[in-house]
Amino acid sequence: MTPTRTPIAVTLAALAFFALLPFAEAQEVAPRGATSYAPVAGTEAFPSVVKRMSAAKAGIVAKHRALLEERYDLGDHPVPGLTMSRGKPIQGGVRVKLPAGVTWDDLAAMSPAEIKAKDLWPAGFYPLPHPNHPEGGMLFPKVHIDEVKSQTGRDLTRFDLDYVMPDRFLPQFPPAIYLTTRPDLGDVSQGKLVSSANYFDLFSGILNPKQLEGLRLLVTPFPQQQFNATHDRRSLEPSLGVACFDCHANGHTNAATHLVGDIRPQQYRHRIDTPSLRGVSIQRLFGSQRALKTIEDFTEFEQRAAYFDGDHVIAAKKGVNPLERGSQVHFMAEFQAILDFPPAPKLSWDGKLDPALATDEEMRGQAVFFGKGRCNECHQAPYYTDNSMHNLKVERFFKPKMINGRFATADGPIKTFVLRGIKDSPPYMHDGRLLTLEDTVEFFNLVLGVKLTTTEKSDLVAFLRTL
Fold it and tell me: Where would I find the beta strands (DSSP E) of 72-150?
């Protein structure tokens, strides 16, 4: 009896189909899948799965790398004299490649319908697929994998897939940690990745007992879809699982990627670029589309559902860890709520630039942000969010396409992400499709139709880097 194809575990035939697709081919895709559930009982021996998926790994990685190279300039072009809060150079310039024969000004002069009709939407502005979209799952940058293994012996390597995006486009690792309760201490990370091996030494005497217990739980690994003790895992050895801070490294982000658990079928699921937890105390929506209303809801939901692709049946098999809401969830949320944004010395108490400290370029950029650019209609000072959701309707600009197993179509409403500390959090958008702030400005210049000049774009980027 042939197993039913599911959104989580695709058959060999489906994998072969996706492998034959061009990077961006117009494709009719069924709006519904055959089932919402993953198979609970495995039908293939684990050694066979490892052999088959390991053999396919190089081809899958090469295909995703080719997609990135087709879309972007991946060269090393740091901005002179500009770094993240712990000193990592920031990549600059527009990296999204234009279609042949057009300029950014040409596109800005066209209507969305004209761009769509002429198929001129830049490839880098389409939704970005997971490195292996038909399979999906949590995937970590190698620098994080190596450090966790060094500290704790836990191995987050997948035998079927590697992280592909070049490190230069990722947040600094390990990130700095700033606390709302102790701003006088500055970065309290001591340059280390916080883990189960060192959290107590780093934070005892700074946190109260509840916060310290919450941090312990945030760095404790629990079973997850790809990392667990069952035979349908994607780690060679049985795994304790993943910790919250394996994606939200040091309460920030390492740009680990995954697929959202709340969309079916598989080809419609959005890739996730892990958002920062800095400043969650001022946020009122959690999850790019789920609109969870409290950090407690988000914390509980992640381990009950998101860890297992939103499938509570497979979660029960793999070892879901229900957290106790009144103590464990509360303690975890209490620690997250004191994670602060990095210092922004040029901003005044109202979140706007102090004219005595800002450059002329930055002041002009602020005027664009609050004026012609229309940025502040969603990103309001002082934290540069409106705690709401908006549908940009980017599908106005392109015809639906299948891209490496991801059906690029309407995204729907997405929450307004916080812009404070934005220079520390590349890549951008909910799926990480934009590598630099320059890319982001070009994207919104077209989507909002504001027709910024070259100087206005440059000024706006300069302002964003002060936040």
Answer: 78-83, 89-91
Consecutive H or E run containing 35:
none
Q: How far apart (Å, rounded) are the C-alpha atoms in residues 458 and 397? A: 24
pLDDT in tens, 93-116: 999 999 999 999 999 999 999 999
Residue type, 300: E
Backbone angles phi, psi at 223, to 5 degrees: -55, 145
**Which are the contacts of 176, defined by CB distance < 8 A and separation ≥ 6?**
85, 86, 187, 189, 250, 252, 342
Chain segment 397-423, per-residue pLDDT in tens? 999 999 999 999 999 999 999 999 999
C-alpha–C-alpha distance, residues 398 and 394, integer Å: 8
pTM: 0.92
Domain ranges of the chain: 136-336
**Tokens for 267?**
């080809």
**Which of 447, 429, 332, 431 is closest to 393 using CA atoms?**
447
What is the predicted pLDDT for the residue at 289? 83
Q: How many other C-beta atoms can be found within 10 angstroms of the C-beta atom of residue 395?
A: 18
The Cα–Cα gap between 431 and 127 comes to 7
Asked if the model's pLDDT at residue 252 lies above 50, the reply is yes
User: How far from the centroid of its chain's Cα atoms is residue 84's Cα?
Assistant: 18
Summarised one tens digit per residue, pLDDT across range 121-142 is 999 999 999 999 999 999 999 9
**142 Cβ contact partners less than 8 Å away, ≥ 6 residues apart:** 162, 163
Q: Is the backbone peptide bond immediately before 382 cis, with ω within 30 degrees of 0?
A: yes
Element (H, E) at 193: none
Q: How far apart are CA 136 and CA 315, in angstroms?
A: 16
pLDDT band per the 50, 70, 90 thresholds, residue 27? low
| DSSP output for 365-422 | HHHHHTTTT-GGGTS-TTTT--S-EE---GGGGS--EEETTEEE-----EE----TTG
Encoded amino acid at 365, one letter: G
Could you give the angle at the alpha carbon of 429 between the alpha carbons of 425 and 430, nearest 5°?
100
Handedness of CA 463, 425, 417, 435 (dihedral sign): positive
Read off the amino acid at residue 168: R
Place of tokens 């959090």: 425
C-alpha of 170 from chain center: 10
